[in-house]
Write a structure and sequence with these properties.
The strands form 3 sheets. A 7-stranded mixed β-sheet has the order 4-10-9-8-7-5-6, with helices on both faces. The chain is globular, with a radius of gyration of 21 Å. It is an alpha/beta fold and 385 residues long. It has 13 helices and 15 strands. The structure holds pyridoxal-5'-phosphate. The site of pyridoxal-5'-phosphate has 14 residues, from helix 5.
């Protein structure tokens, strides 16, 4: 930890644990202990650690062709873009690849400028990333304030409030961006008709509807993309996290008219669509399909939502699939995280009273049962008396 403080920026604070290796949903740390990983790199290691299909694909690719510039095509980038197109169910879908969620949202923001309009509506408390464009979309004052002035013309309205959105969107709106479920804000699920209403308001005003599926995509909610339950089709989908299964990869997928807004020279990224990262993504998608992992997400989700709700000290359980938030009846979430870690479980507290779990999508029922046992004990032992 002293080495960290001496050589790394303080932007994350100092971590309490150094992880050395991982297999599936178990990680080993330099303290010699093994931990049950219920955070999976914050919804990123969708197949857990060291999945054989990712290891094989990446190993083969790195020894075949490690990197090309974007002057050249390569088989993986083509196959992945075509696969994502199929997953959206829309033949017009065209993808721009980048390396992170922030970059995917930056790309969406730049794409919206090509409509000729500059006004944007986003939501309070939303998280869309930390680069200056993505941060301008992010609706969390604590993250924004030190870096003002940010991009102007972006209005933030309360999440889940269709009326506030209707008032904010007009003919001058270039784009509206929301997370299907807010992740970093503490797993907040909007009313069931929210996305449908947003689709209507955007259509009425010629605005692009951008759905940030960085945290809710790639099977996290039991569907490929976190918005699918709504039945709508967005104009833009942004992805990252689970897409590369642990390798850095982001994507901005534009559909319909939006898919032709970017022209040659408008945007780019040296590593975007890199052969190794795209090899990993293809392995992720094929494994999710082959191992019927979306069925597992739904089965384990049902178990966890039921069991967590029964734990004394838990007030509310929310989320979808394997993105689950549990609010506690006392503001002891940080204590619960610490106690869980002592008991061999990794989870996270996005707020004083909220715990988030986002394990690998191939987590086993036995591991889910172990989570419930440790979490129950941690909540019990963390309560203020
Ligand atoms: N959008 C959402 C919904 C996220 O949850 C995150 C990260 O947590 C981001 C964007 C930013 O992604 P990245 O950290 O890869 O830039």
């Amino acid at each position: 930890m002293k080495r960290w403080q001496k050589s790394l920026q303080d932007n994350y604070g100092t971590p309490t644990l150094e992880l050395i290796s991982g297999k599936g949903s178990l990680v080993k740390a330099s303290d010699g202990k093994t931990y049950l990983d219920f955070l999976a790199g914050i919804a990123t290691n969708v197949l857990g650690h060291g999945h054989p299909a990712i290891v094989k694909a990446v190993t083969k690719q790195v020894s075949t062709l490690g990197h090309v510039s974007n002057f050249y095509a390569h088989p993986n980038v083509l196959e992945l873009a075509e696969t994502l197109q199929k997953m959206t169910g829309d033949k017009s879908a065209r993808t721009f690849f980048c390396n992170s969620g922030a970059e995917a949202n930056e790309a969406a923001l730049k794409l919206s400028r090509k409509t000729g309009k500059i006004r944007i509506v986003a939501t309070k408390d939303a998280f869309h990333g930390r680069t200056m464009g993505a941060l301008s979309l992010t609706g969390q004052p604590s993250k924004r304030n030190p870096f003002k002035p940010l991009i102007r013309g972006i209005k933030h309205v309360p999440f889940g409030d269709s009326i506030a959105m209707k008032r904010a969107i007009n003919k001058r709106t270039a784009m509206v961006i929301v997370e299907p479920i807010m992740g970093e804000a503490g797993v907040i699920v909007p009313p069931v008709d929210y996305l449908k209403n947003l689709r209507q308001y955007c259509d009425d005003n010629g605005a692009l509807l951008v759905l940030d599926c960085v945290q809710t995509g790639m099977g996290r909610t039991g569907d490929w993309f976190g918005y699918e339950y709504s039945g709508i089709k967005p104009d833009v989908i942004t992805l990252a996290k689970g897409l590369g299964g642990g390798l850095p990869l982001g994507a901005m997928i534009a559909l319909g008219k939006a898919s032709h807004l970017f022209e040659a020279g408008d945007h780019g990224s040296t590593f975007g669509g890199n052969p190794i990262a795209t090899a990993a993504a293809l392995a992720v998608i094929k494994s999710i399909e082959k191992e019927k992992i979306l069925n597992n997400v739904n089965a384990i989700s049902e178990y966890l939502l039921t069991e967590i709700a029964l734990i004394e000290g838990v007030q509310e359980v929310r989320g979808a699939g394997l993105l689950i938030g549990a609010t506690l009846d006392q503001p002891v979430a940080k204590k619960v995280v610490k106690r869980s870690q002592e008991l061999g479980l990794l989870i996270n507290a996005p707020g004083e009273s909220i715990i988030r779990i986002a394990p690998a999508l191939n987590i086993s029922m036995k591991q889910a049962e172990k989570f419930v046992a440790i979490f129950t004990q941690a909540v019990k032992e963390s309560k203020n008396v």
